Structures are given as C-alpha cells and as structure tokens.
TrEMBL record:
Protein name: Glycosyltransferase family 2 protein
Organism the protein comes from: Salmonella enterica subsp. enterica serovar Poona
UniProt keyword Transmembrane present: no
Annotated PANTHER family: GLYCOSYLTRANSFERASE (PTHR22916)
Pfam family, one: Glycos_transf_2
Keywords assigned by UniProt, alphabetized: Transferase
Domain Glycosyltransferase 2-like: from-to ranges: 32-96
InterPro entries: Glyco_trans_2-like (IPR001173), Nucleotide-diphossugar_trans (IPR029044)
Length: 98
C-alpha cells in the first residue's frame, strides 16, 4: 500500500510534481512527504531531521523550494546528500507567495 502525504505544495510546481509522480507510479515507495521551503534556514535542518523518526515505511522526501533568498536551499541539499532517504529537490524563482 502506498501512502502519499502532501504537507503543502504551490500550484506552480504542479506540472513538475505530476510528471515526477507518473515516473514513480510503479515504484515500491510507501510514504512520500512533500515539504515546502521558503527562507527557512533557521529550522529546515530540524524539520528534515524530524523525518528520521518515521518508522515502518520506505520514505521519500520531496523538498519544494520557492526561490529562497537565504541559505535554505544549500542546507537542504547538504542534508539530502548525507541522508539515507530518497530525497528530491524542486526549486524555482519565488512565485509571489511570501
């Protein structure tokens, strides 16, 4: 059984996310978690580390950056590179929601 959790996602990422979902529809991922990010460098690592508490599922993280102007994106990339999770990062210029 697959479970997908949408924490939040902006509509301007919809095409990229839907294309990506169609690519993985036959995978064995149990839990997909989408985490939106915008200028959250002060707590993005704490948020991502909290995902390590998820047990009993194969977890996939989808990080959606809305054009952060601080160090959010770099911190998320560094965390993803050192994580055991399948982590995907989508990043675009800010869509006007701040």
């Amino acid at each position: 059984m697959n479970i997908m959790v949408f924490i939040c996602a902006q509509s301007f990422f919809k095409a990229e996310i839907m294309e990506w979902f169609s690519d993985i529809k036959n995978s064995k991922i149990d839990l997909s978690i989408i985490i939106p990010m915008y200028n959250v460098e002060d707590y993005i690592i704490e948020t991502l580390n909290s995902m390590r508490g998820v047990r009993g599922f194969k977890v996939e993280l989808i990080l959606v950056d809305d054009g952060s102007t601080d160090n959010t994106l770099n911190l998320a990339k560094e965390w993803a590179n050192s994580s055991d999770f399948d982590t995907f990062i989508l990043s675009k210029e800010n869509g006007g929601h701040q």
